[in-house]
UniProtKB/TrEMBL annotation:
InterPro entries: AfsR-DnrI-RedD_regulator (IPR051677), BTAD (IPR005158), OmpR/PhoB-type_DNA-bd (IPR001867), P-loop_NTPase (IPR027417), Sig_transdc_resp-reg_C-effctor (IPR016032), TPR-like_helical_dom_sf (IPR011990), TPR_rpt (IPR019734), WH-like_DNA-bd_sf (IPR036388). The keyword DNA-binding applies. One of its GO terms (biological process) is regulation of DNA-templated transcription. PANTHER family: TRANSCRIPTIONAL REGULATOR REDD (PTHR35807:SF1), TRANSCRIPTIONAL REGULATOR REDD-RELATED (PTHR35807). This is SARP family transcriptional regulator.
Length: 1057
């Protein structure tokens, strides 16, 4: 790491102290590490905590593995407790972020952690992006804009980066890289200032920098030029002499060739060194110009400058541009960088953009060769190296005929030369292998659809993989192509168009070209056209052969037969991701055979691996895959493939259900596939379904549609594809998964499709309506729940389904309890209990007993609950149902807490949490953590309360359960209110209140208003206190909680004599 004395020569600016309410967080790494949220700055203690947060911010929003973080914090001096200590640091950082108003931004995700913030919220990212912009401006000519950008962003530095932290190992190198970029930015700034004629000011600044960095040749060169332009010719030559002497003494070497050439030009008083247009430059030119000719500025020796024009309206790509910069700046710089990605993703545009911005770093030439790797006229390796040799000035007659001779001549010409070779559109590693330079100063930049992994067996290769643009980047591209006014006038349709184009640059440019050709055509009109059955037909422009379909077809036609078949048959899968097991099922292959095919597809960037063994299509490639299935597969084969896919899902989900929720046995799904895609225990089954969650709703929806696909994407289906039994049976066997994991908004929609699929099927319809009613309960939509549940009860009675009738009564009671209609709830629970007992169903009996006890607790009658809850616990243990056992333990904990027996409550909640963690029941684990937090608060232990409640908050956010999240936020607010930290308390209570807009619950909303009223009263704001109190009273009455409303009203009534 450069020494701090040297860094201090670069100057510093003072820190800012706050961000406005509603603004994103401000994370500052360019100086002492600071994080500022809506509630003020985060309080971080210790150098390792600051280093840890800084490293997560430096990589935000990307995940950083735990092993990398441990190496960065301890280096080789690794303690035995490193993992435990890392977890402790993470917990303390989370607490600090929570307290400054930034809850939930530090996310745990295997195998590490990430900071869920935008890169632009971090000053280091803004600085690096601004420097890249300035370098592009400097290369293109507008030096004044480059200088202004550099000055503004160099002011972000408040001292040394990570000034109050001590990262080690690779992390220290990251910090060194930031300082190196800062120094480069200063050099770029004074290069721009010299172009603008500000050489007098440059001298002092450059001399100050060289005191700290005396051997920086670029700075010396800029100083020599500035001195020369100030008329200080001798001082300019002396600066060179000093550097040469210093290098000889310290390193035993001479200045590099660039500086040596500048020295020679100074000795010769080269007129091109004068500021353009200066009198001295004009006088020298006039003396040197031949008689009768107009003087012209002399030019350097011609070098190859073959880069094509940059893509118009290039946007985004900050991360891959940064990766390219990093590859160039790395100490062990690779000789080859491969930019890979699917066709139309913008590989060439990125490579050319970066090459133009960095052309100055390759003064001996920039060569561009189109290898035509995706077409029938692909260049051979010999043709490619011949093109490059010709570009380097070798006459065709002198190019050796044999490959070895060509490669030897190529290496000789590039020796000690700084040349950039852009090899575009490579089809194989063999095409570019002879072009790999041996010289450390040259770089081969390759674009290809595959990673060209074979290159890495011979050479050091850096790979930069491109994906689709981010949504906001794609909208920005559309703005630049169509104009702000047109996009702003149809912002919603513009967003839809971006997604229909899959955020693929080629597709967006084609769509924009169609709109530019018809200035009066609404964007929405094109969106509706593309939203039909002919999306790929619509993404082509007459007269341009490079349509989206043609780009994809060029990759498809070179696939092996097994890979091509997997590609098109997986196109019939309605979901966004798939595993090798599903691919094997679709194509009737073994899993190893399917794995080989997927490896080939991934290498060609026709699929992307998004997690271990899980893949996805880019949106438009998925459309093309389905198109290939319709074209290349017989209708009966497509129908059979869909049948296999749906059967696989039902069999796998049924097997998972038997592990997760064994008492849910009213559906007998087909035998599971062999092998199963998970180990045969509940935890692994839940983890597998977590990975499948984004597929489950599309599968149910697709199966439920029993005729022409009016709602499913048209590319997925033969004309008739309904499998309604699969839809409702799959929904049923997934009940335990959603009950454990949450995501109830998705579950509501799934149950609606299941009701549609089961309508008219008697008791099956009743079963699905009961499931929909439960989903409505979990989203606090109690009126809709009761409507569905009463219909379910009527169907069960009509078809003599006594077990279903008992469950319908239980669920009706749950809805009544949620509405605080406890008398009706207890009556319905007893109806369920009677029916389950008559049928000798111990699971149903235990469930009803637990729910009756829970209702008494919530009524404020815990003394009546204990008998029911003890019986429920005994029954659940007798039948060995762990999930129901945990529910009974938790209900007993609530009873003890309501009775004031906190020790007993803590014991029961602790037992419940252990069981829920063992079974992977994350939703109810979050609920139990909330209860534990309330117990600790009741004991006055605010630290322990916050620890449990923050765990509950994180878990509820991960499972997208906004009801539980609102409860956690409210209780955290109460903890801060107990400690009279009114600012933090108000922040958390307001966040809870905002969530209640999306998950309406009059009773819970009233409770938040009551807490806010208490807070404002204690904070000296009686008017605001009164407003919240009035709202609480009204909501309590709406929630059938008249006792709470009367008590609150009495508390504010004036006392009469």
């Amino acid at each position: 790491m450069p020494n701090s004395t040297a860094r201090s020569a670069l100057g510093a600016s003072p820190p800012a102290q706050t961000v406005a309410p509603g603004d994103p967080p401000a994370v500052r790494l360019l100086g002492p590490i600071e994080v500022v949220g809506p509630a003020g700055p985060a309080t971080l203690s210790g150098t390792r905590q600051r280093a840890l947060l800084g490293l997560l911010a430096l990589h935000a929003p990307m995940l950083v593995p735990r092993t990398r973080l441990i190496d960065a914090l301890w280096g080789e001096d690794l303690p035995r407790t490193a993992v435990k200590t890392l977890h402790s640091h993470i917990a303390r950082i989370r607490q600090a972020l929570d307290e400054c108003g930034l809850p939930g931004i530090l996310v745990t995700r295997d195998p590490g952690y990430l900071l869920a913030i935008a890169p632009e919220d971090v000053d280091a990212h803004r600085f690096e992006a601004a420097v890249r912009d300035a370098q592009r401006d400097l290369a293109d000519g507008p030096a004044d804009r480059a200088a202004a950008t550099l000055r503004a962003n160099l002011a972000l530095w408040r001292g040394d980066a990570f000034a109050d932290a001590e990262p080690l190992g690779w992390a220290a190198a990251e910090v060194d890289r930031l300082h190196e970029q800062r120094l480069t930015a200063f050099a770029d700034l004074w290069e721009a200032e010299l172009e603008l004629g500000r050489h007098v000011a440059a001298v002092g600044e450059l001399e100050r920098l060289l005191v700290a960095y005396p051997m920086r040749e670029r700075l010396v060169g800029l100083l020599m030029l500035a001195l020369y332009r100030c008329g200080r010719h001798a001082d300019a030559l002396e600066a060179y002499r000093r550097l040469r002497a210093h290098l000889a003494e310290e390193l035993g070497t001479d200045p590099g060739p660039d500086l040596a050439r500048l020295h020679v030009r100074l000795l010769r008083r080269d007129p091109t060194l004068e500021p353009v247009g200066s009198p001295a430059a004009r006088a020298i030119q006039e003396r040197q110009a031949p008689p009768g000719q107009t003087p012209a500025m002399s030019t350097p020796m011609p070098v190859p400058a073959q880069l094509p024009a940059k893509a118009g309206h290039f946007v985004g790509r900050a991360w891959p541009l940064g990766e390219l910069d990093g590859a160039l700046d790395a100490g062990d710089r690779p000789g080859v960088v491969v930019v890979c990605g699917p066709g139309g993703i913008g590989k060439t545009a990125l490579a050319v953009q970066w090459a133009h911005a960095n052309a100055g770093r390759f003064p001996d030439g920039q060569i561009f060769v189109d290898l035509r790797g995706d077409g029938p006229a692909a260049m051979t390796a010999s043709e490619a190296i011949g093109h490059v040799l010709t570009s380097l000035g070798v006459p065709a007659s002198r190019i050796p005929a044999d490959p070895a001779g060509q490669a030897g001549l190529y290496r000789s010409l590039l020796h000690r030369q700084r040349v950039l070779i852009v090899a575009d559109n490579a089809g194989s590693a063999g095409q570019v292998l002879p072009l790999v330079p041996a010289s450390a100063g040259a770089l081969l930049l390759v674009t290809a659809r595959s990673r060209l992994d074979a290159l890495a067996t011979h050479h050091s290769v850096a790979v930069v993989s491109l994906d689709a643009l981010h949504h906001h980047e794609a909208v920005t591209l559309l703005r630049r192509l169509l104009g702000d006014a047109r996009v702003d006038g149809e912002a919603s349709h513009a967003g839809d168009l971006v997604e229909l184009c899959g955020r693929l640059p080629l597709a967006l440019r084609i769509a924009a070209a169609k709109l530019v050709a018809r200035p009066l055509r609404p964007i929405g009109d094109l969106t509706r056209e593309l939203g039909g059955d002919n999306l790929l037909d619509g993404l082509s422009v007459e007269g341009d052969s490079r349509s989206v379909r043609a780009v994809f077809a060029s990759a498809y036609r070179v696939l092996s037969r097994p890979a091509a078949r997997v590609f098109r048959l997986i196109g019939l899968h309605p979901g966004p991701t798939f595993t090798g097991y599903l691919a094997a099922t679709a194509a009737a292959l073994t899993p190893p055979e399917a794995g080989q095919a997927l490896d080939e597809l991934a290498a060609a960037h026709l699929v992307a691996e998004v997690a271990a063994g899980r893949y996805r299509f880019h949106d438009l490639i998925g459309v093309y895959a389905a198109e290939c299935a319709r074209r290349d597969e017989a209708p009966e084969d497509r129908v059979e493939t869909v049948r296999r896919l749906l059967g696989w899902y039902l069999g796998v989900a049924g097997a998972a259900n038997r592990l997760i929720d064994p008492g849910r046995d009213r559906v007998a799904p087909p035998d599971p596939p062999d092998p199963l895609p998970f180990e045969a225990d509940a935890q692994h089954a839940l983890a597998f379904l977590d990975g499948e969650r984004d597929n489950l709703l599309p599968i149910v929806r697709y199966a439920a549609q029993d005729g022409p696909a009016q709602h499913a994407p048209a590319q997925h289906a033969p004309a008739q594809h309904g499998h309604p039994a699969v839809a409702w049976q799959l929904t049923y066997v997934l009940t335990g998964f959603y009950d454990s994991r949450g995501h109830w908004t998705q579950r509501v929609e799934m149950c609606r499709w299941a009701v549609r699929a089961a309508t008219g099927r008697g008791g099956d319809e009743g079963l699905m309506r009961s499931g929909l009613g439960v989903a409505y309960i979990m989203t606090r939509r109690f009126d809709e729940a009761l409507d569905e549940l009463h219909q379910a009860l009527e169907l069960m009675r009509r078809y003599g389904d006594q077990r279903g009738e008992a469950h319908a009564y239980n669920n009706i009671a749950v809805a009544y309890a949620g509405m605080r209609r406890f008398d009706e709830a207890i009556e319905a629970y007893h109806e369920a209990l009677t029916r389950h007992g008559a049928q000798q169903r111990p699971l149903g009996v235990a469930l009803a007993l637990n729910n009756i006890g829970d209702a008494y607790v919530r009524m404020g009658r815990p003394e009546l609950s204990l008998e029911y809850l003890d019986r429920a616990l005994a029954a659940s243990r007798e039948i060995r149902n762990a999930r129901l056992e945990a529910a009974s333990l938790s209900s007993l904990g609530q009873a003890h807490l309501s009775s004031g027996d906190i020790d007993a409550a803590l014991a029961r909640f602790g037992e419940a949490l252990a069981v829920r963690e063992q079974t992977g029941d994350r939703r109810y684990a979050a609920d139990t953590l909330n209860h534990l937090g309330r117990c600790h608060l009741a004991r006055g232990d605010r630290t322990a309360a916050l620890d449990q409640l923050r765990k509950a908050l994180r878990l509820s956010q991960e499972i997208a359960d906004q009801h539980l999240e609102a409860l956690s936020l409210r209780d955290i607010g109460r903890v801060y209110l107990r400690g009279e930290d009114f600012t933090a308390a108000r922040g958390y209570l307001k966040l809870a209140l905002a969530l209640r807009i999306r998950t309406p619950d009059p009773y819970e909303t009233a409770t938040i208003h009551r807490d806010l009223s208490d807070l404002e009263e204690r904070a000296g704001n009686p008017g605001e206190a009164r407003g919240h109190r009035d709202q609480a009273i009204g909501l309590y009455r709406k929630a059938n909680a008249s006792a709470e409303a009367d008590a609150l009203a009495a508390a504010q009534a004036p006392v009469t004599p």
